[in-house]
Amino acid sequence: MRDFATMQQMTKLFLRALKHSIPHLGKSMQKQNYCNFGNHYYNRIRLKKYDLQNKSKISELARNVPSRSFSCKDLLPIKPEDEKSHSESMDAFEKVRTKLETQPQEEYEIINAESSIPAYLYAADSDNYEVLFNLEELKLDQPFIDCIRVAPDEKYVAAKIRTEDSETSTCIVVKLSDQPVMEASFPNVSSFEWVKDEEDEDVLFYTFQRNLRCHDVYRATFGDNKRNERFYTEKDPSYFVFLYLTKDSRFLTLNIMNKMTSEVWLIDGLSPWDPPVLIQKRIHGVLYYVEHRDDELYILTNVGEPTEFKLMRTAADAPAIMNWDLFFTMKRNTKVVDLDMFKDHCVLFLKHSNLLYVNVIGLADDSVRSLKLPPWACGFIMETNSDPKNCPFQLCSPIRPPKYYTYKFAEGKLFEETGHEDPITKTSRVLRMEAKSKIPQVHRARALGIGLHQIPQVYGARALGIGASPDTASAPCRSPDIGLHQTPQLHGARALVIGAASDTASAPCRIPRHRGHISTDGKLVPMTIFHKMDSEDLQKKPLLVHVYGAYGMDLKMNFRPERRVLVDDGWILAYCHVRGGGELGLQWHADGRLTKKLNGLADLEACIKTLHSQGFSQPSLTTLSAFSAGGVLAGALCNAKPELLRAVTLEAPFLDVLNTMMDTTLPLTLEELEEWGNPSSDEKHKNYIKRYCPCQNIKAQHYPSIHITAYEHDERVPLKGIVNYTEKLKEAIAEHAKEAGEGYQPPNIILDVQPGGNHVIEDSHKKITAQMKFLYEELGLDSTNAFEDLKKYLKF
Predict the structure, then answer these.
(1) Which of 236, 266, 518, 578 has the most CB atoms lying inside 10 A of its own CB?
(2) Which stretch is the leader sequence (predicted)?
(3) Hey, how many other C-beta atoms are within 10 angstroms of the C-beta on 4?
């Protein structure tokens, strides 16, 4: 086993090798026009600690791989001579860290900083810094390391590097020695993992991405026995492939998936040259994910009735579906957010009725411990971890920075990170409520799906990384004790989770001031609301509504400094968890996709009307924000009920559904058919899309002001569709202005096309500032205090 000094030296060697390797990666990562790198993003890594510990044997077949934990938390910048100038020019997201994961179980974290001086990759030993890698020397446009994997014997390191204006990455392989060299570089790599064969040779598996599609898997070796060969090709263009190494490194899983169906093959981590073993051939409508422990496979799947996610188990040498035994199931309206496997425990991260839980299953005694997490928490952030005794994770909310928690298996307790308490906990509270509809629920179509933009997280996190949005229901086996809760508790921001509805129905349970309502067909629509506890006359406060409602994905509720600033300045934030999203599970998604997309629009309208009727703001002070596919519902609402809104901000919005889904030359059209339908071959789908597609329903009427941010190199949402929408909207507004006559004040329509960039680009303070300025100006509000606070939070 290598000691601290040895591993630190290896890290330095790797970074030095990066310095000399990256400039030779080819034109795919070079920009023809060199930009001013002083105004671009750079990465810095600081070595903080390095712990080594033995990993106990999982089974007779498993290898005894040393577990390693490399941490770079609490990063500190280099202090140049012009320290004051440097600190004043820091980008908004110096706090935002990108997790880099190595295998087995190393953890790196990096920081992105927008700075007027060069930035570096560097190592630190106590207070001594050594600059290893100056990114300005690379002549790349906003380069950063996306992912790292260390080979089992630590002879090689593979790193995936990309730039801010592209989703394609290049994987380089560096040999760690006294004279480190770049062994190979592979363009357009998505996922990659190391295994070791019978002769202790490192083998790298990686997926090749072309036009956002991953259909090919390659297998490569290095050194004297260098080879690179295609291992698998998926023939169906509606499927994609990704790689995932089980927590114990026993198997490499080859996952073949689309929105509805999955198929998994096992590659033996001890004999990677043997043919892979099929777990279960793809069955339309059946999704499953695989983990391994002690010669058994743990399979999270929606197979069987009800068609919701449940945990099943089978012997590793008998993987077929007829051998799957039901092992664990959850109550209705419980979403499985993620799963992590340990030596003696399985940990499920759950969301039930919009509250977060952790269920710890003891694999030795089949015990189940369910922990209800603090009510302020709205989301999990998974932590890379190799310690069999502890399960760390973070909790977050839109207005509160992430906080660390650790569940210790021996004590059976959850420990909270100590330290400075966020001041917002003393000035606000959280309250969650639900009300049931009297009207029978309808549209119980059995369907499911997986979120397009979650797939990269599956292999990026150490936990299993569930891509779908499960809503598991009861079954004849163990179930956690999770019920409905009303928790008027002083903690976090005041978050009110209430049911929204149209005016056509009422709820049997009325709670003063926060009445639960239902959508037009009887569905309860949850909302999460934030505002200052001491706010008076909320009807006169500005309101910012958030919506998504697609792919079975939850509405993002991670910490955003600008959201915190808005709440501090008196704004109300409302997150509407409409159908089509994943907050209430697979059925919630099924009720809002294909020919049920209008349900999501009805839900959004019901949410906003309920907010107004309950005294939260008014139409003249109501704004709406949406990203990507959330633009469908936001744009549809602007067409159908523009009087509910004053202003709208859209980022990389999907607005031209019909033309996009009829263009099969676009990279994602075939993958998206299960979400939106096939208007090219199905007249029913075509006519239905026409009913809600924002671009198809623009008419001469008054619209709210709209600020659209688009990206020049966005491969997921074509810029052509956004421009087409904007032009049609401006024409309709001009026509309405003529009809309205003199004195009519038309809305502002702003299309901000960012040069470069891509669909998943990180936020910059420039973009945040522009969006906030737009909202304040449209509502006629004084933004002085807000922008002073924003500078404090974002440090620019």
Answers:
(1) 578
(2) none
(3) 12
